[in-house]
Amino acid sequence: MLESYLKQTRTQKDILLMTHIVLGYPTFEDSYDIIAAMVAAGVDLMELQIPFSEPIADGPVILHANQKALAGGATVQKCLDFSKEISRTFDIPFLFV
Q: Does the annotation mark 3 as catalytic?
């Protein structure tokens, strides 16, 4: 499914844009608004990161976002439920990281 989407979209564009978001940062409501804005701006696909406590390899900015999301109550289940909602709302592929 992803491969066919990429091939089809590449027939219409020379380059595709993939973005990344830490779910629940700063809040799930804000995450929704950020995703909506990115999709409206033409993002082709998006990585959704489920926050976890030790994302050291991601660098300080992503580490901070993970810590804040967890402190705000983000859980794996909340991220899965949220992802189900946005995948029904927006017509781009979402990938978990």
A: no
Which of 3, 47, 81, 91 is flagged as catalytic? Answer: 47
Catalytic residue among 58, 81, 85, 91: 58
Cis omega before residue 93 (within 30°)?
no
Where b means 16+ CB within 10 Å and e means fewer, 27-42 reads ebeebbeebeebbeee
Domain layout of the chain by residue ranges: 20-96
Catalytic annotation on 85?
Answer: no
46-56: pLDDT as tens digits: 999 999 988 77
pTM: 0.90
